[in-house]
Amino acid sequence: MRVAIIAVFTDYHRRGAHHRGGLQPQIGPLVAALLPDWCDVEIVNDTWEDPDWSRSYDLVFLSCVHADFDRARQISHYFRRRGARTVLGGGMASNYPHLCRPYFDAVVVGDPEDTVPRIAADARAGRLQPLYRSGGYEADSVPVPAIEGVAHKQIFPLSVEATRGCPYACDFCALTALGTRHEVRPVKNVVRDILAGQATLRQLGVASWKRRLIVFYDNNLAGNLKWFRELCLALKPLDVRWGACLTFNVIANRDLLKLMYDCGCRSVFVGLETFNPVTLKDIDKPQNNIGKMAQAIAQARDEGILVIGGLIVSPLHDDAAYIRALPEHLDRCGLHVPSFVSFETPIPGTPFFTRMAASEQPMFLPHANLYDFSAYTLVLQPQKNPLHEFLGAYRETMRRIYSPVNRLAKLADDLPRLLRRGSWTAAALDVGDMHATRFDPVPGRTFMAGTDALPPEVIPFADDDFDSESHRLDICSPTLVSDGEGRALPHWRSSQQVFNLESPTRRKMAA
User: Is Methyltransferase found in the keyword set (predicted)?
Assistant: First the structure.
């Protein structure tokens, strides 16, 4: 059976470009490893390249986040018209299976480990079901990822998922929309995956330096600190260099930073989010501490670990003066240049979306489409300034933050600290990050939902791919989230949580 696994991507910067950066989707190698050996599998990371439209498949797995749903359903339609059966998984499928089902032969709610093998068997037997629900995550059932299919199509091919989920319940996070959980795998299985991946890369002739660099794709690798310390100690004898996404409380702990560096950590991404305490409280992110940000970043660099951070601006609580002050905040805390400055966005299904949808006054911009909910287009009405003033301050500030002079100034501050510790890998990553990070919007970008430049990605449909004009419009029209007044459309208020686990963090805080 010919099977494609497509991780769907829409360029959020509206260039229609692929994103051949250091991070690439890893759902393909995981799903491929879950499929029986009678499947002939092709992995397509839409971030790296388009699907081969000339290929034919029996079964197509697609995975997408909410903002990529329009492209996912169009890809599905294209291959369905050519005889394939299509399956959608991911956050959108889990939160809104009822909205997805008309466009796919099957929709998956939850994890792939216990659903993908059933789907393959049912498809082969001609009894594919419209809906599959996972029975829950079982850490021991996670296979060694089949990275050979994408080893030459990512900068860092040794990519590992050691945990799943996050113990925190941030108001705007898509993970919170699914339900709070944090699952850890046996450390010995994580080491097994690393050693197997290195062996595969060696057989494929991948450069030796790439076999020593590991990217952990976890949303929060250190959500369980006891387990995280155990993992660090298990990585030390492997003599690898690694990076991961972590939370602020980790970089605020100097002893933990020392252990991480000693065990190979050279880079971490942290969602610093904001310098506004009102915004921080509203997004429900108690693990961050604005007052300790400068100290945490400085000690991480002094210990040889590069901190890469992301920021959001809040349409509810930030005004133009705050946005214009961001470069000064960034300089004082030592981050200087974040990997992104995005808009706080109420992704459908999140508690934040539910709050905005329930408001008596219209909170959304009119005619916001689902592809606008990428965090790089504003979808909410600013509450502190007129819309044009808020967006004008954002544009002006982005140019300042990502100017060549500012990026060089960051390197001038970072590199001496990192190199004093002998952290050449972190220094190289910093240089690469500053080379790739910039603000260069395409003509026509308004950054405003309903009027922003349209996503330019296209599917090469033929005239006979549609039965009527109404059929074409159903497949190709954008998926609306808000009406002409800026109110959420009713069907977006009926999302479902997949995991009904109480947050360990909340239990601790409540106590």
Answer: yes
Which residues, in sequence order, are bridge partners of residue 182? 165
Phi, psi of 170, deg, nearest 5: -60, 140
Per-residue pLDDT tens digits for 447-456: 999 999 999 9
Residue boundaries of the structural domains of the chain: 2-133, 156-436
DSSP states of 35-70: S-TT-EEEEEETTT----TT---SEEEEE--GGGHH
Q: Which of 385, 274, 364 is nearest to 319 (CA)?
A: 385
Cα 452 to chain centroid, rounded: 22
CB atoms within 10 A of CB 443: 6
User: Going along 302-427, which residue ranges are E strands?
Assistant: 306-313, 340-343
Q: Assess contact for 223 and 250: CB atoms under 8 A.
A: no
* Topology at the third CATH level for domain 2-133: Rossmann fold (3.40.50)
Strand runs (DSSP E) across 221-286, as ranges? 241-246, 265-273
Whole-number Å distance between alpha carbons of 230 and 95: 34
Q: Which tens digit of pLDDT belongs to each residue from 297-331? A: 999 999 999 999 999 999 999 999 999 999 999 99
Residue 504, pLDDT above cutoff 60? no
DSSP 452: S
Q: What are the beta bridge partners of residue 107?
A: 88, 131
Tens digits of residue pLDDT in 161-214: 999 999 999 999 999 999 989 999 999 999 999 999 999 999 999 999 999 999
Closest CA to 487 of 316, 366, 351: 366
pTM higher than 0.70: yes
Chain-centroid distance of CA 184 in Å reads 19
- Which residue type does 444 have? G
Interval 463-499: pLDDT, tens? 999 999 999 999 999 999 999 999 999 999 988 888 8
Residue 419 CB neighbours (<10 A)? 13
Q: Which two tokens stand for residue 91?
A: 């956050």
Contact 268, 306 (CB under 8 A): yes
Which pLDDT score, from 0 to 100, does residue 25 have?
A: 85
Half-sphere exposure of 189 (CA within 13 A, CB side): 14
pLDDT at position 382, please? 98
Count the Cβ atoms, other than its own, within 10 Å of residue 226.
7
Whether 2-133 shares its CATH topology with 156-436 is answered: no
Q: Report d(CA 167, CA 55) in Å as an integer.
A: 41
Task: Answer for the pair 263, 240: CB distance below 8 angstroms, yes or no.
Answer: no
